[in-house]
Design a protein that fits this description.
The chain is of the alpha/beta class. The chain has helices at 32-42, 60-74, 86-99, 110-114, 116-125, 135-139, 150-165, 187-193, 199-204; strands spanning 48-53, 77-82, 103-106, 130-132, 144-148, 181-186, 207-209. It has a 7-stranded mixed sheet with strand order 2-1-3-4-5-6-7, with helices on both faces. The longest helix has 16 residues, at 150-165.
C-alpha cells in the first residue's frame, strides 16, 4: 500500500506496474482539498487553519501544495506545523494554543496514525476542531475523519496476495485504488467542543458516533 506509488518510484504506472511490485494506492494527497472543504463547512466562521505534517514523509511537499491551493480557494489562511516525534507533536499543539487556532487538519502519516491517541487528546485539550484521514481517529475521540476505507484497501491487498501466490505476475496486476471512502463524525466530541455539526455533513456521513 502506498499514497503515490508512481511518485515513490515503485511502479511505472497504475494500469501497467511493469516491474515486480503492485498493490493499492490510498490516494492520500488528492483528498487533502476535500478535508479542508469539509473543515470549512464545519466551522465556517474560522479564517485561520493549521496543517500538521511530518517533514520526513516524502508526500509532505505535495500535501502542503494541495492544502495551500484548497485554502486559497476557500479564502482561508493556512499555517504549517511540523512534527516528527512525540515531543514535537506537543510543541505543535502548544503553538496552536498560543495562536488560538480556529481548526486543524492532520495529514496522513504512519507516525501520526501510531500516535492517534496523543493527537486526539491534545486536540480535545486545546479545544481545536480537527479532521483526520482515518476512521480510527474518530473512533478514538477525534471530531471528523474522511478517507479511504482501510478495511476495503486491506481486502484488495489480500486478494492480490492470493493471486500472486497462485502464479499471477505483479506486472500484470494494475495498482488498485480505493472505491469506498468514509466520512465519520463523532457527535460526542462535537458536543464537548461546542461545535454544531451541520446537517449537510450529517446527511453525507457514513457513520455517526454518538
Amino acid at each position: 500500500m502506498s499514497a503515490d506509488p508512481i511518485a515513490a518510484g515503485l511502479v511505472a504506472s497504475l494500469s501497467r506496474p511493469a516491474g515486480n511490485l503492485t498493490g493499492v494506492s490510498i490516494i492520500t494527497v488528492e483528498l487533502m482539498s476535500k478535508r479542508i472543504e469539509l473543515l470549512s463547512e464545519l466551522v465556517p466562521q474560522v479564517a485561520i487553519i493549521f496543517l500538521l505534517v511530518n517533514a520526513s514523509n516524502p508526500n509532505t511537499a505535495p500535501i502542503i501544495r494541495d492544502a495551500r491551493e484548497a485554502a486559497r480557494v476557500k479564502g482561508l489562511q493556512l499555517h504549517i506545523l511540523k512534527a516528527g516525534t512525540e515531543s514535537e507533536i506537543d510543541i505543535a499543539f502548544a503553538t496552536l494554543g498560543q495562536t488560538h487556532a480556529g481548526a486543524l487538519v492532520v495529514s496522513d502519516d504512519p507516525f501520526f496514525t501510531s500516535r492517534r491517541e496523543q493527537l486526539v487528546a491534545l486536540a480535545s485539550r486545546h479545544a481545536v476542531p480537527a479532521i483526520y484521514q482515518w476512521r480510527s481517529f474518530t473512533v478514538a475521540g477525534g471530531l471528523l475523519s474522511y478517507g479511504p476505507s482501510l478495511a476495503s484497501a486491506f481486502r484488495l491487498a489480500g486478494i492480490y496476495a492470493g493471486k500472486i501466490l497462485k502464479g499471477a505476475a505483479p506486472a500484470d496486476l494494475p495498482v488498485e485504488q480505493p472505491t469506498k471512502f468514509e466520512l465519520v463524525v463523532n457527535l460526542k466530541t462535537a458536543k464537548a467542543l461546542g461545535v454544531t455539526i451541520p446537517q449537510s455533513i450529517l446527511a453525507r456521513a457514513d457513520e455517526v458516533i454518538e
